[in-house]
Automatic annotation (TrEMBL):
The lineage of its organism: Bacteria, Bacteria division TA06. This is Transcription termination/antitermination protein NusG. Residues 122-149 form the KOW domain. GO terms for cellular component: cytosol. Belongs to the NusG family. The gene is nusG. It comes from candidate division TA06 bacterium DG_26. Gene3D superfamilies: 2.30.30.30, NusG, N-terminal domain.
Length: 177
């Protein structure tokens, strides 16, 4: 019987752990021939927080796992009894396979995002920030514009009683709590 792709619902934030549990169980039960890939769609993201850049791997679809398998009693038992999984599409008796186009679209998105990094900023327009590095250290201002591709911000700060726009790097400011 051919392998089809299915979507499983996992506890959000536990997708990678559930994937590891599935892989371990499949190996222990010697059922590798019934299973193909197990995919938790992720992308690399650079987050700027507290003035520091951190590269992390972010789950694209929180709570979802894609699994390629041949559905039978043994494989369904493994899927249904793995802690942290509840089926999303279908019922306890039978899962409904995903369309080939859907899976190809998701996998293409994963592969296209791997080489480049998506920049994620914890600042918004209008947010008050404090400059923590550079010639304007300890000045406060308001974010006017965000340029994620250049990792820069335009911040309006008050210098000598006059509002002055300055361009700063993401790591040069931190939000005021």
């Amino acid at each position: 019987m051919a392998k089809d792709w299915y979507v499983l619902h996992a506890l959000s934030g536990h997708e990678k752990k559930v994937k590891r549990l599935l892989e371990q169980t499949i190996k222990q039960q010697n059922l590798e021939k019934y299973f193909g890939k197990i995919v938790v769609p992720t992308e690399n993201v650079t987050r700027v927080k507290d003035g520091k850049r951190r590269k992390i791997e972010k789950v694209i679809y929180p709570g979802y796992i894609l699994i390629e398998m041949t559905p039978n009693d043994e494989t369904m038992k493994i899927v249904m009894t793995t802690p942290g999984i509840t089926p999303l599409l279908g019922t306890k008796r039978r899962l409904h396979p995903l369309k080939k186009e859907e899976v190809e679209r998701i996998i293409a998105r994963i592969e296209e995002k791997k080489p480049e990094e998506v920049k994620e900023v914890y600042l918004e327009k209008g947010e008050s920030v404090k400059v923590i590095d550079g010639p304007f250290t300890d000045f406060t201002g308001v974010v006017e514009e965000i340029y994620p591709d250049r990792e820069k911000l335009r911040v309006t700060i008050t210098i000598f009683g006059r509002a002055t726009p300055v361009e700063l790097g993401f790591t040069q400011v931190q939000p005021i709590q």
